[in-house]
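ingest -> validate -> predict -> emit
validate: passed (alphabet ok, no gaps, 98 aa)
predict: started
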Amino acid sequence: LLRRQAGLRASTLTVGAVTLDLISRRLSSPSGPIDLPASVPVDASQVYAKNILTLVQYLVKDGNLALNFEDDIIDSACVTHAGEIRNARVLEALSIAV
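emit:
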């Protein structure tokens, strides 16, 4: 099937050549190859921004910061509060007894 679609004869195909050809076709557009490495930071930044936005929306209720430390997400996300370090991993990294 691949040979017929690609218009190649069996004698000219090698496994590596077919794989590279399929990959190159997948990563290209009508205007040329897509610069995949350059697009990764943009996607990562968008995902990070979305995660931060979601966390802030979770922390803010009716326009006010709502810190319920009984909530595992809020408790884990909070590093310091009221002048004290709350996060156990930060305390451990600083070698401070919990």
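The beta strands are 28-29, 32-33, 60-61, 64-65, 80-81, 84-85.
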